[in-house]
Amino acid sequence: MKLLSQLRTSSFQLALLYMVVFATSVFLLLAFIYWRTAGFMTAQTDETIEAEIAGLAEQYRGRGVNGLITIIRERVARDPNAKTIYLLTTEDFLKLAGNIETWPEGSRTESGWINFTLSSDVGWSGPERLARARIFEVQGGLRLLVGRDVDELTSLKRVIETAINWGMGITLALALLGGFLMSRSTTRRIEIINNTSRRIMNGHLSLRIPTRGTEDDFDQLAENLNQMLDRIVYLMEGIRHVSDSIAHDLRTPLTRLRNQLENTLMSVDNDAAREHAGRAVAEADQLLATFNALLRIARLETKGSSADMKRVALDELVSDACELYEAVSEDKEQTFEQSLAAGAVIEGDRDLLFQMISNLIDNAIKYTPEQGTVGVAVRKEGDEVVFEVRDSGIGIPDDEKDQVFQRFYRVGKSRSLPGNGLGLSLVSAVAEVHNGRIILSDTYPEHQPPGLTIAVHMPALPLVPKRIRATQAEPAQPESADTGTKPADL
């Protein structure tokens, strides 16, 4: 699978395109060399035959037919290897001289050139070989064939063709290997950037893309991305600082205002005024809860971890929370289910974990209608402990599941219900402090409403075995040297 993903990368496709262009160039170059080499050797053979024909024509003009026959016989006798092919016949193809017996069969051009095979069919006594000759008529009705053995030339052409084929194959293999290695090196650099970017998107804003110090294109890209991240973090910290400062500065006067409203509520006798004052106190409590949540989230994001990390039995902590919220669920006539596996131990801050658990259970009860179902579970999955809350409520659309952890974000269906949009933001911050991850899914994907299941996965701690105190036996007393008997037990 990894190899297939490597082949689909743009760098490999670019290398493949380069390989095709390079291989085409090499093929055209080798084809040109072959054409020039083979053409030159063929032309040289034809020139040799033409020169031989010119010499025989001169002998014929000076000595006649008898002289032509004589010179052909002499040349055949001087050439035992039969590199040059001769055949002189009458008009009726009766042999007068030469080293073959009959006219060969083969493709003949208009200029008289013929390619054929020297074999027993033409009276050749040696092994079969390839030949090229020219045929023309001599005055008096005689026919003359003069050719050359081109078997070595043909073998040389085959060697060149084989070399070209192997050269092309090796070129393609090397180009493919080079493209793969180049794309692999490029893909590694890109994968480093992708992995770092994914971790940054998951909330690790302090990470930066590493560079090699080569000042190449990838280093320049990494430096630009790192500068962009620095700027984004600076702007985010500025906005966060402003919002946290506002929350911190307004909490004290808002607390005073809330206390004054509560005093007013206790002092008024008019029912209508008492109702208005009660509503004002409730709104002030809601604002104070919002500011407290903002400040707590800010502290978690600033510190990055809790200072009070201890071994926590998550199943016991969730059981305590369920005792508090089970009565609330019963008031709405909901089915409250629990499945708490023992031995689910993690390292964490008990108070923060209880806040996270309470928020999730409270949300599940709040957004589940009457006679609905709320389920709470704790289980171990490999080296992780999973805390899960599921409900049969309104659920969250798939396109909004990644946004509900943002501050003040509320799903459209839940805007009519009380809340400030900070509950899941606090849950996300607590989970991050505990190196956890949150998975959202539909409880009933095929039903409407689909409900919501929130699972928080956190690293598990190994169980500590109970220490068994070994009972040490009293050492045996030595035997008496005088009597040879053991002393009596006291």
TrEMBL record:
Broad class of where this protein is predominantly found: membrane
Enzyme class per UniProt: transferase
EC annotation from Swiss-Prot or TrEMBL: 2.7.13.3
PROSITE patterns the UniProt entry points to: HAMP (PS50885), HIS_KIN (PS50109)
Location within or outside the cell: Membrane
Pfam family, one: HisKA
Keywords: Kinase, Membrane, Phosphoprotein, Transferase, Transmembrane, Transmembrane helix, Two-component regulatory system
Reaction(s) this enzyme catalyzes, per UniProt: ATP + protein L-histidine = ADP + protein N-phospho-L-histidine
Region (Disordered) residue spans: 470-490
Gene3D superfamilies registered for this protein in UniProt: 1.10.287.130, 6.10.340.10, Histidine kinase-like ATPase, C-terminal domain (3.30.565.10)
Protein's recorded name: histidine kinase
Alphabetical list of PANTHER family matching this protein: HISTIDINE KINASE, SENSOR HISTIDINE KINASE YKOH
GO molecular function terms listed in the Swiss-Prot or TrEMBL record: phosphorelay sensor kinase activity
Domain HAMP stretches: 184-237
Histidine kinase domain mapped to chain residues: 245-462
Transmembrane segments: 12-35, 163-182
Signal peptide: none
Cited CDD domains: HAMP, HATPase, HisKA
Gene Ontology cellular-component annotations: plasma membrane
Keyword Endoplasmic reticulum: no
SUPFAM superfamilies listed in its UniProt record: ATPase domain of HSP90 chaperone/DNA topoisomerase II/histidine kinase, HAMP domain-like, Homodimeric domain of signal transducing histidine kinase
